[in-house]
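haha ok so turns out i had the wrong file open the whole time. this is the CORRECT one, sorry everyone. sequence first:
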Amino acid sequence: MTTTAALFDAARAELAGAPREALGRVVTPRRVLGIARASRIVPAGTAWHLGVLLLTDDAVLATGEIVRARREARRGYAAQSQRDRAERAAAAHRGGFDEGAVVHVGWRMLDPEVLADGGASGPLASVGGVPSVRWSAAGGYRPLDGYLAERIELLRNPPPGAS
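then structure:
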């Protein structure tokens, strides 16, 4: 049986040279003279985006929100959620990300080692002794080895029209 660590190590070796995406973390500046300043999203590394997982050189993360950095602009939005999303995109730009850069925010560290004891960590779990991943909140678990192989193939050879 292949260990979870071995699966991720093999994935890292296969992904060498593949494009990575930025990780960011939200920084809320201190108030100056009682006036709040706008938060920003600052760089926190890079990772390969493999569906519900983000794989770094030494960690496995669960994806959070994905934003595309852009300059702040006055826009009229019908929904508060659109305003909030535009604010996070502007926060990424204020934090130093280039216009249009994809940034992952709100990601969580996972502990793949707990799968050896039959436990779970975020979308990772041991199902019948097989390292597995839940690829959506409503979806079931599937074996991690097949999931990683599929996601690596999609990352290396995206379908036509995908960006």
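The helical segments are 4-15, 80-94, 144-156.
again sry for the mixup
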